[in-house]
Design goal:
- There is one protein chain.
- By secondary structure, the protein is an alpha/beta fold.
- The protein has 8 helices and 8 strands.
- It has a 6-stranded mixed beta sheet. A two-stranded parallel sheet has the order 7-8.
- A hairpin with a 2-residue loop joins strand 1 and strand 2.
- The chain is globular, with a radius of gyration of 18 Å.
- The N and C termini lie far apart (41 Å).
Amino acid sequence: MKKHPFLIEKRKIPAGDHSVGILILRPLNRSAGPAPGVLWVHGGGYQSGSAKEVFATRALSLVTKFGAVLVAPDYRLSRKHPYPAGLQDCYAALLYLKEHAGELGARPDQIMVGGESAGGGMTAALCMLAHDRGKVRIAFQMPLYPMLDDRDTPSSRDNHALNWNTKRNHKAWKRYLREAYGTDIVSCYAAPARRTDYSGLPPCYTYVGEIEPFYCETLDYVRHLREAGIPAEADVYPGWFHAYDILFPAKKESRQAIETFEKHFQYACDHYFAPQEDRPGEPGNAVPGINLPE
């Protein structure tokens, strides 16, 4: 049996009227005291994937190099459960991380959220939902090449790049949104690019490939955050198609991106804190009739 330099645990947690599985990774050496707690959301177009993907993504080094406590939810997928099922599960996992921070060895004032692709989109949605509900404060967000906009953008329209393209993007959004696809009733919690007020959201770092569909929506998201006074940065990598860094982690450009990402994470650990305090929720951008966890 392969040994890992960290603890791995699976749990089932309550999420409304059902339970959701979470994968927990913790460093073996916890003598340094509480560490940042990171909720990492897997990608897969909201329709595929699992929590086990953390072992092949940027999430793993946050545990092995920085000693972070990582929670990865196995949220319900849109093939059987369209929006808001997956978001409900991820939000339940976020609340669990907050409420069990002491037991897990995580700092309650440094709860962070990240993910790639659809996981990046879910990251942005969680930051918005958490802000609007007022039950948990997020210190930092890492939505890497996130899937944010159900509408075509200049980069997602007529895109034929490798790995993810216009055809696959349309199909995934239709499956996730169902009857709401192509209408004006889509909530920002489903497609975060629909947000109109970005104030109060956590600081952000991301990167994106120049030829992939999510290029424009990623940069638009960072721009909106900056306009709202939120520290936010994005790096752009020429010639990269979707998930290039995961598919080719050994290439020079991928190693550069990974190193830069880790520097931003270290900066966040040193500078970004969000002490927990329940506050009244604020009016968000939810669609009436869609109930999300309080």
